[in-house]
Inverse folding.
C-alpha cells in the first residue's frame, strides 16, 4: 500500500490496491468504520484528504458508494459503505460542502438519510 493511501485510511481499514494499471481500488467498510474515516479525514490537513468525486446508492439503499480521488496519480477509490436499511449515515458535507447536493439527491430519490441535511421544507427546489 502506498504511503498516500496509508495516510488517507490510517489503520481504520485494509486497502488492497490492484496490481498493474488498474484505475479503481475497491474498499468495503461498515457504517461505523465509515464514521471513523470521516472523523479521520476531518483531522487531516486539507491537502492530505482524498477528493470526493461522487456518491451513489449501490444494489439497495442500504449501501452507499463513495468515489474518492486520493491524488498523486493513485487509482481512484470506490468505497462501499454497508449500513442497515433506513439507518442515518454521517453526512459528508462537513468535509466536502458540495456533497450536500448528492446527499439530498440520495435522500429524495433513494430514501437514504444523512446527518446534517436540512429538512425537506428548507430545500429550495422542493418548495416550488
Amino acid at each position: 500500500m502506498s504511503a498516500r493511501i496509508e495516510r488517507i485510511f490510517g489503520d481504520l481499514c485494509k486497502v488492497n490496491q490492484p496490481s498493474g494499471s488498474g484505475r479503481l481500488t475497491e474498499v468495503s467498510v461498515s457504517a461505523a468504520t465509515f464514521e471513523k474515516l470521516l472523523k479521520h479525514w476531518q483531522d487531516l490537513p486539507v491537502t492530505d484528504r482524498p477528493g470526493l468525486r461522487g456518491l451513489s446508492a449501490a444494489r439497495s439503499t442500504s449501501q452507499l458508494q463513495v468515489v474518492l480521488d486520493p491524488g498523486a496519480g493513485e487509482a481512484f477509490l470506490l468505497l462501499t459503505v454497508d449500513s442497515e436499511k433506513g439507518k442515518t449515515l454521517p453526512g459528508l458535507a462537513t468535509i466536502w460542502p458540495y456533497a450536500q447536493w448528492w446527499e439530498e439527491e440520495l435522500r429524495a430519490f433513494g430514501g437514504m438519510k444523512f446527518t446534517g441535511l436540512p429538512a425537506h421544507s428548507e430545500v429550495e427546489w422542493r418548495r416550488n
